Amino acid sequence: MRDCPECGGPVEARFHYCPWCSAPQRRKLVEFFRPHEELDSDHGKALRVSRYFGSTEPERHVRFSVWNETGSAEAAVSLDEEEAHRLAKFILASGPPRPSRQRLLEAVLGLAGGSRRR
Ligand SMILES: [Zn+2]
User: Fold this and answer.
1) Mean pLDDT taken over the chain
2) Inside any domain, residue 34
């Protein structure tokens, strides 16, 4: 039993919504990511990333789990907000340069030009 962060009413842990004020008790976002297509060792696996929201520091975390083709998780680890941000910055900073706006604009104009009369 815990207290609803919205109204303070008692809420059983298994409830997703507060029975007194209907506030969501545990919110999360889940996204699956495909493995690299050319790496055979990752065939049939997927990365599931779940971002948990909550009112306390331990509730707010990002959980990474590796799922196999039988539908079970092989491993999982949770990062706190600070580590999750560090991971996101690492991926963005170490990746290939992103296409510039000019190239994107040219691509869009190129698509539009195909059906546009001059
Ligand atoms: Zn409530």
Assistant:
1) 87
2) yes
